[in-house]
Please model this.
Amino acid sequence: MPRPLVVVTRKIQDEGLDLLRESCEVVVEPPDLKAAVAEAVGLLVASHTKVDVPLLDAAPRLKVVANFGVGVDHVDVEACSARGIWVSNTAGSLTETVAELGWALILAATRRIAEGDRVVRGGRWTGVGPFFFLGSELWGKTLGIVGAGRIGQAVGRRAPAFGMRAIYWKRGEPLDALLRESDVVVLTVGLNAETRHLIGERELGRMKPTSYLVNIARGPVVDEAALGRALLEKRLAGAGLDVFEDEPRVHPDVLRQENVVLTPHIGSATLETRRRMARMSAENCLAGVSGRVPPLAVNAASVAARTSR
Ligand code: 8YV
Model:
């Protein structure tokens, strides 16, 4: 029997590739993904490549789409379920690492770390003074966490260490109270139809002009043009952003603000986490390839319902 074919969209850590290679033929970073999936039984998505109907149509033997990461908003999960294809993620692999980046952005935005670095390196630093480079203290303030899932809770667990009170927003609850009360708002929700532009003009208007917005979720959760305007008009004190609406492009109004700290979607980018993500995505992929429900399938119930029809 020929070994089953697994296509991996971007090279991943050896912890994952070696595991796949034990029992499968593995094609990594094929130049033409559509052509490469023609015989594939497993697809490991290690990029934000769209897994849509045209790609699924080109992959008639596919049993599993194993995502290297937690958010599966780039995968048409419904179309996969309709075809009996499992979709899995790596939930739990990156919680603490993403929470750490959240805090890095909170601290960088409120203490103007990136801006200060630019001043020092640019030779524009002339000395200290009572009014020089004032930031905002976190101690005694309120941290509003939008999304009370794994990552949201991991961000919140660190709040007492900074003397902050954490409050949470969950799906279905009104958001205004949290926005009005918080000194820092951190977004940790997954992207779906309900959370797209969850933070727009109206919501930004509910936030205190002294408050900060941090996004470690998905770019489209925020209306980036509205955020750019709010920052330009000083209706917010600053922002820390790891994700953007149209990556790798950043809205020009956001880019030109000194009080915004920008990172290039590196929430899960630590050595330890990426190794876990590689291993977990490979394990999910191998389960699906061999006809077993992947341990972290996000559509197990829908696939089961379809096959039992
Ligand atoms: C990316 C992420 O998947 O887990 C997520 O939702 O956004 C990241 O971990 C990763 O960067 C893809 O290479």
Remarks:
- The pocket of 2-keto-D-gluconic acid is lined by residues 46-47, 68-71, 94, 268 (CB under 6 Å).
- The longest strand covers residues 40-45.
